[in-house]
Each structure stands twice: as C-alpha cells, then as structure tokens.
Amino acid sequence: MPNHLNVEIGGKQTYVNEGDGLLAPITPGVRDLEKWLNLEPAEMPALLISEDNTVTADLRSATGHVLPSPAEQISKKEEWEASDSSLARLAARMGISNITGCWVDVDAWRDDKGYTFTLHPEELGIEPSAKLRWPGERLHTLAHLLLMRIYDPEYQKPQGVDLDHTCCFTGCCNPHHMEGVTKNENNRRQRLAALLAKPLMTGQSIIGPSGLDWIDTTVAASPTEDTGMIVNTSNGPFRIIKVEHNPLIIRGEPEPDNLLSALRPKTMRKSSRPSRARAGKARAPKEQKDLFHKNRYKKKLPTQKVLYLASLGS
Q: Coil, strand, or helix at residue 133?
C-alpha cells in the first residue's frame, strides 16, 4: 500500500512522505485529515491523490485473510495477458475489481451461490468432459487447472480437495485467490466467514466485540469513524465504520466496485420459485369411525367358538 500522497494546499501541490507528518495511512473518506497531516483547519487539503490511484485500506476477506493490494493484482493480470501461457486467454476474458483484485466474467451465468459457469471449456484450452451438462464447468475450477498445468501439463485436481476462495467472493476466478483444502476445512472457513459477512450484507450493526481478534483490534485502535478496513464477502466489499465508541458499535457500508453493478444476477433456486401447481380440492375431515373400512375386520368369534367346543368334545 502506498505511504505517500500528493496534497493540494492553497493551490500548491505538496508531496507528503510518511516521515513528513503522515501519522497514519490515508483512506478514502477519512474524517480527521488535519490531525493526521498536522495541518491547521484553514489548511485542509482540497485534493488527495494516491500515488498509484488505488485503495489504501486494510483489505481482508471475511475470514481475516489478508488480500494483496489491487495494484499488485492488476499488474499480475496484465502479465498473464501478455504471456503465451494457457492462462492468457482466461485473463483476457476477465474483468478485474479495482477494490479486491478479483477476476470476474460479467457475462457468465451465475448460480444461486454466485459461482460462474461456462459450457465451452474448449475455448479456454481445456478438453470438455464427456458428461458435461448444464450449466457446465465452474470457471474458478478451470482457472485453477490452467494455472497448475503451466507447471505440470498432466495436473488434475486431487479427489477430496475443495477450492476455497480466500477472498470470500464466490464469483472470483483469480487463481491466486484460491487454495486447495479439505472439505472439512472449507466448511469451517465458510462458517467463520458467515459470522461477519451476514451482519454486513444484511445491514445489521454489530454491538460489542465481534469475537474476531483481527477486526476488534483494528476497530478499537481507530481514532476515527472510518476504520480504514475493507472486508470482502460473497456480496462484494464492505467498509467497516465505527458508529459508537462506548458501547462499541460497528457496521458495514458497501464499497463502490467497478464490476458488481455489471454482474448478472444470481439464478433463483428452484425451491424458491413460486409453485404453479393447482391447489388441491379441500376434503372434509372424517370422523374416527369412518377411517376404518367396514370389511377390514371380519367377525371370527362365532367360528372360533365352534372350533373350541368341538375340541372339548373330542
């Protein structure tokens, strides 16, 4: 992350380094700039320009995983696009988020969980499966295969290994945001991410410590409302805002992203679609005596009595 800024004060641009009074990283929307830059209120900067024009926040996923800077991810993607590797075709097809560095195909079909699919893996240089059916192959799995086959042309994903999105965004196809883990570990990370992601995505406020040390420590140490932290979820990035100090209350504000607005909406589950079946004809409740068929139980007492008497006579 950059530690220097071009600051325009009184019509003049001043280059500020970390040693020249920059007491903390400057994040978009920060409130106490005069305190952080040791300026008088009349000298408040009119314009702040980051040297590499990227977000200067603490960028993490909902599991606490530290994500590389967007500038680093954009540069890496440009290198793949210019290369002659099998990953170049996929990299050229993808857009990249200026906040999180996620690769996203905005035209791809998405399921209800946000995963993107393709029915034509051969366009990316991968032989399609003989059992390929709708909706096709997951694009993030193909991205992982393309990256690994650069080093091992015969690579296949091992059985029992899940690809975990360390960025927590299921629509991401950046192979550097994926990690092969066991099924149990993948489920554990999903449960951990839900502790923070659900309140952020639903607009709820978190009162008191969240139970996650990596976020509680940063929020408690932040002197401003803007904590300088962005958390990525399956619905995109959220900026952590400290509403109150005592008691501690935090909430998330959606961070504007250049790709989220262009994404296709998730497909609705079949079970959540309204049923078109006609309502069944209402039946009048039956009495208990009518629930038994009249011929179900036969009267066997007279026959049994005759046989019993015959046995006594013999």
A: coil
